[in-house]
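Anyone able to model this chain together with adenosine-5'-triphosphate?
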Amino acid sequence: IKRIAVLTSGGDSPGMNAAIRSVVRTCAYHDLECIGVYRGYEGLIEGDFKPMDARSVKGIINKGGTILKSARSKEFRTVEGRQKAYKKLVEAGIDGLVVIGGDGSFTGAMILNDEFDFPVMGIPGTIDNDIVGTTHTLGFDTALNTVVDAIDKIRDTASSHNRLFFIEVMGRDVGHIALNAGIAGGAEEILIPEEDLGLDRLVESLRRSRKSGKTSSIVIVAEGDKIGKNIFELKDFVDDNMEGYDVRVSVLGHMQRGGSPSCFDRVLASRMGVKAVESLLEGKSNYMVGLQNTKMELTPFDNAIKGKTKINLELLRVSDIMST
Ligand code: ATP
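re: yes, here you go
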Protein backbone atom coordinates (compact mmCIF):
# COMPACT_ATOMS: atom_id res chain seq x y z
CA ILE A 1 0.00 0.00 0.00
CA LYS A 2 1.39 3.40 -1.03
CA ARG A 3 -1.49 5.82 -1.08
CA ILE A 4 -4.42 5.96 1.33
CA ALA A 5 -7.54 8.11 1.03
CA VAL A 6 -9.68 9.34 3.92
CA LEU A 7 -13.25 10.66 3.92
CA THR A 8 -15.96 11.63 6.41
CA SER A 9 -19.54 10.54 5.71
CA GLY A 10 -23.03 10.71 7.22
CA GLY A 11 -23.72 12.94 10.23
CA ASP A 12 -20.70 14.81 11.51
CA SER A 13 -19.41 14.36 15.05
CA PRO A 14 -16.81 16.08 17.23
CA GLY A 15 -13.48 14.31 16.87
CA MET A 16 -13.72 13.69 13.12
CA ASN A 17 -11.02 16.32 12.50
CA ALA A 18 -8.79 14.75 15.11
CA ALA A 19 -9.27 11.40 13.30
CA ILE A 20 -8.44 12.94 9.89
CA ARG A 21 -5.29 14.45 11.44
CA SER A 22 -4.32 11.08 12.85
CA VAL A 23 -4.84 9.24 9.55
CA VAL A 24 -2.82 11.87 7.66
CA ARG A 25 0.04 11.87 10.17
CA THR A 26 0.16 8.09 10.46
CA CYS A 27 0.47 7.94 6.69
CA ALA A 28 3.31 10.49 6.82
CA TYR A 29 5.00 8.50 9.60
CA HIS A 30 4.98 5.37 7.41
CA ASP A 31 5.99 7.27 4.24
CA LEU A 32 2.60 6.76 2.62
CA GLU A 33 0.80 9.42 0.63
CA CYS A 34 -2.54 10.53 1.98
CA ILE A 35 -5.43 11.91 -0.08
CA GLY A 36 -8.33 13.76 1.51
CA VAL A 37 -11.71 13.18 -0.13
CA TYR A 38 -14.21 16.04 0.20
CA ARG A 39 -17.96 15.52 0.87
CA GLY A 40 -17.91 11.79 1.61
CA TYR A 41 -18.98 9.37 -1.12
CA GLU A 42 -20.31 12.29 -3.18
CA GLY A 43 -16.78 13.63 -3.54
CA LEU A 44 -15.41 10.14 -4.11
CA ILE A 45 -17.66 9.74 -7.15
CA GLU A 46 -16.64 13.17 -8.46
CA GLY A 47 -12.93 12.77 -7.70
CA ASP A 48 -12.92 15.76 -5.33
CA PHE A 49 -9.49 14.89 -3.91
CA LYS A 50 -6.71 16.81 -2.21
CA PRO A 51 -3.27 15.47 -1.23
CA MET A 52 -2.64 16.00 2.49
CA ASP A 53 0.71 16.11 4.21
CA ALA A 54 1.48 16.19 7.93
CA ARG A 55 1.44 20.01 8.06
CA SER A 56 -1.90 20.31 6.23
CA VAL A 57 -3.74 19.11 9.34
CA LYS A 58 -2.23 21.55 11.81
CA GLY A 59 -4.59 23.38 14.15
CA ILE A 60 -7.60 21.08 13.65
CA ILE A 61 -7.42 18.64 16.58
CA ASN A 62 -9.54 21.02 18.68
CA LYS A 63 -12.11 21.85 15.98
CA GLY A 64 -15.61 20.37 15.77
CA GLY A 65 -17.20 19.30 12.47
CA THR A 66 -15.02 18.02 9.63
CA ILE A 67 -12.66 20.00 7.39
CA LEU A 68 -13.30 17.43 4.64
CA LYS A 69 -17.06 18.15 4.85
CA SER A 70 -19.63 15.39 5.05
CA ALA A 71 -22.48 14.41 2.77
CA ARG A 72 -25.09 11.77 2.10
CA SER A 73 -24.84 10.33 -1.41
CA LYS A 74 -27.78 8.70 -3.17
CA GLU A 75 -25.63 7.86 -6.17
CA PHE A 76 -23.23 5.77 -4.10
CA ARG A 77 -26.17 3.49 -3.25
CA THR A 78 -26.22 2.44 -6.95
CA VAL A 79 -23.76 0.09 -8.70
CA GLU A 80 -23.09 2.78 -11.31
CA GLY A 81 -22.21 5.28 -8.60
CA ARG A 82 -19.83 2.89 -6.88
CA GLN A 83 -18.25 2.01 -10.24
CA LYS A 84 -17.50 5.71 -10.81
CA ALA A 85 -16.03 5.97 -7.33
CA TYR A 86 -13.84 2.90 -7.88
CA LYS A 87 -12.59 4.34 -11.18
CA LYS A 88 -11.61 7.61 -9.48
CA LEU A 89 -9.77 5.70 -6.76
CA VAL A 90 -7.81 3.67 -9.30
CA GLU A 91 -7.04 6.72 -11.49
CA ALA A 92 -5.63 8.53 -8.46
CA GLY A 93 -3.45 5.53 -7.57
CA ILE A 94 -5.20 5.07 -4.23
CA ASP A 95 -4.93 1.58 -2.76
CA GLY A 96 -6.73 1.88 0.57
CA LEU A 97 -9.66 3.89 1.96
CA VAL A 98 -10.43 4.99 5.53
CA VAL A 99 -14.10 5.86 6.07
CA ILE A 100 -15.02 7.93 9.14
CA GLY A 101 -18.78 7.70 9.70
CA GLY A 102 -21.69 5.66 11.01
CA ASP A 103 -23.22 2.30 10.12
CA GLY A 104 -24.62 3.56 6.79
CA SER A 105 -21.18 4.72 5.73
CA PHE A 106 -19.72 1.34 6.72
CA THR A 107 -22.39 -0.47 4.68
CA GLY A 108 -21.30 1.56 1.65
CA ALA A 109 -17.64 0.76 2.29
CA MET A 110 -18.41 -2.93 2.74
CA ILE A 111 -20.29 -3.09 -0.57
CA LEU A 112 -17.44 -1.28 -2.36
CA ASN A 113 -15.06 -3.87 -0.93
CA ASP A 114 -17.34 -6.78 -1.97
CA GLU A 115 -17.74 -5.50 -5.53
CA PHE A 116 -14.19 -4.38 -6.32
CA ASP A 117 -12.07 -6.04 -3.64
CA PHE A 118 -10.93 -2.56 -2.60
CA PRO A 119 -9.26 -2.36 0.86
CA VAL A 120 -11.40 -0.36 3.31
CA MET A 121 -11.21 0.40 7.02
CA GLY A 122 -13.78 2.21 9.21
CA ILE A 123 -13.59 4.66 12.11
CA PRO A 124 -16.90 4.99 14.01
CA GLY A 125 -17.77 8.69 14.07
CA THR A 126 -21.22 9.38 15.50
CA ILE A 127 -22.46 10.94 18.74
CA ASP A 128 -25.10 8.25 19.24
CA ASN A 129 -22.72 5.49 20.41
CA ASP A 130 -24.90 3.00 18.54
CA ILE A 131 -22.23 0.86 16.87
CA VAL A 132 -21.27 -2.63 18.02
CA GLY A 133 -17.52 -3.27 18.43
CA THR A 134 -16.56 -0.15 20.37
CA THR A 135 -17.53 0.98 23.83
CA HIS A 136 -17.29 4.58 22.60
CA THR A 137 -17.91 6.06 19.17
CA LEU A 138 -16.09 9.25 18.23
CA GLY A 139 -18.04 12.27 19.47
CA PHE A 140 -20.13 10.48 22.10
CA ASP A 141 -18.11 11.78 25.03
CA THR A 142 -18.09 15.35 23.71
CA ALA A 143 -21.85 15.24 23.08
CA LEU A 144 -22.41 14.00 26.65
CA ASN A 145 -20.40 16.90 28.04
CA THR A 146 -22.34 19.35 25.87
CA VAL A 147 -25.68 17.93 27.02
CA VAL A 148 -24.68 17.91 30.70
CA ASP A 149 -23.57 21.52 30.39
CA ALA A 150 -26.96 22.41 28.88
CA ILE A 151 -28.84 20.51 31.63
CA ASP A 152 -26.86 22.39 34.30
CA LYS A 153 -27.84 25.71 32.75
CA ILE A 154 -31.49 24.77 32.40
CA ARG A 155 -31.50 23.60 36.01
CA ASP A 156 -30.53 27.10 37.14
CA THR A 157 -33.65 28.57 35.62
CA ALA A 158 -35.81 25.56 36.56
CA SER A 159 -34.99 25.89 40.24
CA SER A 160 -35.39 29.67 40.25
CA HIS A 161 -38.95 29.39 38.95
CA ASN A 162 -40.16 26.04 40.34
CA ARG A 163 -40.36 24.65 36.87
CA LEU A 164 -40.50 21.17 35.46
CA PHE A 165 -38.39 20.91 32.31
CA PHE A 166 -38.60 18.25 29.64
CA ILE A 167 -35.29 18.28 27.78
CA GLU A 168 -35.08 16.42 24.48
CA VAL A 169 -31.71 14.95 23.53
CA MET A 170 -30.58 13.06 20.42
CA GLY A 171 -31.17 9.31 20.21
CA ARG A 172 -33.85 7.97 17.83
CA ASP A 173 -33.03 4.31 18.37
CA VAL A 174 -30.73 4.28 21.36
CA GLY A 175 -30.77 5.97 24.76
CA HIS A 176 -27.04 6.16 25.50
CA ILE A 177 -26.89 9.96 25.46
CA ALA A 178 -30.11 10.31 27.46
CA LEU A 179 -29.15 7.77 30.11
CA ASN A 180 -25.58 8.93 30.70
CA ALA A 181 -26.24 12.67 30.50
CA GLY A 182 -29.41 12.22 32.54
CA ILE A 183 -27.53 10.59 35.41
CA ALA A 184 -24.71 13.15 35.21
CA GLY A 185 -27.18 16.03 35.08
CA GLY A 186 -29.23 14.74 38.02
CA ALA A 187 -32.41 14.14 36.02
CA GLU A 188 -35.57 13.08 37.80
CA GLU A 189 -36.56 10.63 35.09
CA ILE A 190 -34.98 9.50 31.82
CA LEU A 191 -37.11 8.32 28.90
CA ILE A 192 -35.29 6.13 26.38
CA PRO A 193 -36.19 4.07 23.28
CA GLU A 194 -35.17 0.79 24.95
CA GLU A 195 -37.57 0.90 27.90
CA ASP A 196 -41.15 1.92 28.34
CA LEU A 197 -41.41 3.71 31.62
CA GLY A 198 -45.11 4.41 31.13
CA LEU A 199 -46.86 7.70 31.55
CA ASP A 200 -48.44 6.72 34.85
CA ARG A 201 -45.11 5.95 36.40
CA LEU A 202 -43.71 9.22 35.16
CA VAL A 203 -46.51 11.20 36.74
CA GLU A 204 -46.34 9.15 39.92
CA SER A 205 -42.59 9.72 40.17
CA LEU A 206 -42.97 13.46 39.69
CA ARG A 207 -45.74 13.59 42.33
CA ARG A 208 -43.59 11.63 44.75
CA SER A 209 -40.63 13.93 44.34
CA ARG A 210 -42.91 16.94 44.76
CA LYS A 211 -44.17 15.53 48.02
CA SER A 212 -40.64 14.90 49.22
CA GLY A 213 -39.92 18.61 48.90
CA LYS A 214 -38.54 19.01 45.37
CA THR A 215 -39.64 22.26 43.79
CA SER A 216 -38.21 21.76 40.33
CA SER A 217 -37.50 18.74 38.16
CA ILE A 218 -35.78 17.76 34.97
CA VAL A 219 -36.88 14.90 32.75
CA ILE A 220 -34.56 13.84 29.91
CA VAL A 221 -36.32 12.51 26.82
CA ALA A 222 -34.50 10.72 23.99
CA GLU A 223 -35.95 11.60 20.56
CA GLY A 224 -37.22 8.05 20.09
CA ASP A 225 -38.48 7.41 23.63
CA LYS A 226 -40.62 4.30 23.98
CA ILE A 227 -43.65 6.04 25.43
CA GLY A 228 -44.16 7.14 21.83
CA LYS A 229 -45.33 10.68 22.56
CA ASN A 230 -43.36 13.63 21.36
CA ILE A 231 -42.00 16.01 23.95
CA PHE A 232 -44.81 18.56 23.50
CA GLU A 233 -47.47 15.88 23.97
CA LEU A 234 -45.67 14.82 27.14
CA LYS A 235 -45.75 18.40 28.38
CA ASP A 236 -49.50 18.63 27.68
CA PHE A 237 -50.13 15.33 29.46
CA VAL A 238 -48.31 16.45 32.60
CA ASP A 239 -49.93 19.89 32.43
CA ASP A 240 -53.34 18.19 32.42
CA ASN A 241 -52.54 15.62 35.10
CA MET A 242 -50.36 17.43 37.61
CA GLU A 243 -50.85 20.53 39.61
CA GLY A 244 -48.36 23.04 40.86
CA TYR A 245 -45.72 22.76 38.16
CA ASP A 246 -44.95 25.26 35.46
CA VAL A 247 -43.97 22.83 32.70
CA ARG A 248 -41.48 23.85 29.98
CA VAL A 249 -39.83 22.14 27.05
CA SER A 250 -36.31 22.51 25.70
CA VAL A 251 -35.17 20.70 22.55
CA LEU A 252 -31.37 20.74 22.41
CA GLY A 253 -31.11 19.80 18.72
CA HIS A 254 -28.00 20.13 16.60
CA MET A 255 -25.91 21.94 19.18
CA GLN A 256 -25.27 18.42 20.54
CA ARG A 257 -23.18 17.59 17.48
CA GLY A 258 -20.97 20.63 17.56
CA GLY A 259 -18.16 22.02 19.61
CA SER A 260 -14.57 21.31 20.38
CA PRO A 261 -13.94 17.59 21.01
CA SER A 262 -13.25 16.50 24.60
CA CYS A 263 -9.85 15.22 25.66
CA PHE A 264 -11.26 11.68 25.58
CA ASP A 265 -12.47 12.04 21.97
CA ARG A 266 -9.18 13.57 20.81
CA VAL A 267 -7.19 10.70 22.27
CA LEU A 268 -9.67 8.15 20.91
CA ALA A 269 -9.52 9.73 17.44
CA SER A 270 -5.72 9.69 17.47
CA ARG A 271 -5.66 6.02 18.46
CA MET A 272 -8.29 5.05 15.91
CA GLY A 273 -6.48 6.80 13.05
CA VAL A 274 -3.22 5.00 13.83
CA LYS A 275 -4.98 1.63 14.11
CA ALA A 276 -6.92 2.13 10.86
CA VAL A 277 -3.87 3.02 8.74
CA GLU A 278 -1.63 0.37 10.29
CA SER A 279 -4.31 -2.30 9.82
CA LEU A 280 -4.53 -1.45 6.11
CA LEU A 281 -0.73 -1.67 5.96
CA GLU A 282 -0.94 -5.15 7.50
CA GLY A 283 -3.17 -6.15 4.60
CA LYS A 284 -6.43 -6.16 6.60
CA SER A 285 -9.65 -4.89 5.09
CA ASN A 286 -13.38 -4.62 5.79
CA TYR A 287 -13.04 -3.90 9.51
CA MET A 288 -14.01 -1.14 11.87
CA VAL A 289 -11.55 -0.05 14.55
CA GLY A 290 -12.96 0.29 18.04
CA LEU A 291 -12.21 0.59 21.74
CA GLN A 292 -12.70 -2.60 23.76
CA ASN A 293 -11.41 -3.06 27.31
CA THR A 294 -9.05 -0.09 26.88
CA LYS A 295 -7.49 -1.63 23.73
CA MET A 296 -7.88 -0.89 20.01
CA GLU A 297 -9.56 -3.86 18.35
CA LEU A 298 -10.96 -4.68 14.91
CA THR A 299 -14.57 -5.74 14.28
CA PRO A 300 -15.71 -7.01 10.86
CA PHE A 301 -18.01 -4.43 9.21
CA ASP A 302 -20.68 -7.08 8.98
CA ASN A 303 -20.87 -7.45 12.79
CA ALA A 304 -20.56 -3.72 13.43
CA ILE A 305 -23.47 -2.97 11.10
CA LYS A 306 -25.86 -5.75 12.01
CA GLY A 307 -25.45 -5.64 15.77
CA LYS A 308 -27.54 -3.50 18.08
CA THR A 309 -25.92 -1.91 21.10
CA LYS A 310 -27.53 -2.72 24.44
CA ILE A 311 -28.37 -0.25 27.13
CA ASN A 312 -26.41 -0.72 30.32
CA LEU A 313 -28.95 -2.09 32.82
CA GLU A 314 -26.77 -1.18 35.76
CA LEU A 315 -26.96 2.47 34.65
CA LEU A 316 -30.75 2.22 34.51
CA ARG A 317 -30.78 1.00 38.09
CA VAL A 318 -28.37 3.73 39.22
CA SER A 319 -30.64 6.29 37.60
CA ASP A 320 -33.65 4.84 39.46
CA ILE A 321 -31.87 4.93 42.80
CA MET A 322 -30.59 8.47 42.25
CA SER A 323 -34.09 9.81 41.71
CA THR A 324 -35.25 8.51 45.11
P1 ATP B 1 -25.23 8.65 10.92
O1 ATP B 1 -24.78 7.99 12.19
O2 ATP B 1 -25.12 10.11 10.97
O3 ATP B 1 -26.56 8.18 10.44
P2 ATP B 1 -24.28 7.10 8.73
O4 ATP B 1 -22.92 6.80 8.21
O5 ATP B 1 -25.06 5.93 9.24
O6 ATP B 1 -24.12 8.22 9.81
P3 ATP B 1 -26.01 7.36 6.42
O7 ATP B 1 -26.66 8.57 5.86
O8 ATP B 1 -26.82 6.22 6.80
O9 ATP B 1 -25.12 7.89 7.62
O10 ATP B 1 -24.95 6.84 5.33
C1 ATP B 1 -23.99 7.71 4.76
C2 ATP B 1 -23.80 7.39 3.31
O11 ATP B 1 -23.33 6.05 3.16
C3 ATP B 1 -25.08 7.44 2.48
O12 ATP B 1 -25.41 8.74 2.05
C4 ATP B 1 -24.70 6.55 1.29
O13 ATP B 1 -23.96 7.28 0.34
C5 ATP B 1 -23.82 5.50 1.93
N1 ATP B 1 -24.63 4.29 2.18
C6 ATP B 1 -25.47 4.06 3.21
N2 ATP B 1 -26.10 2.87 3.06
C7 ATP B 1 -25.65 2.35 1.91
C8 ATP B 1 -25.94 1.16 1.16
N3 ATP B 1 -26.82 0.25 1.61
N4 ATP B 1 -25.29 0.97 0.00
C9 ATP B 1 -24.41 1.87 -0.46
N5 ATP B 1 -24.11 3.01 0.17
C10 ATP B 1 -24.71 3.27 1.33
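The mean pLDDT is 95.
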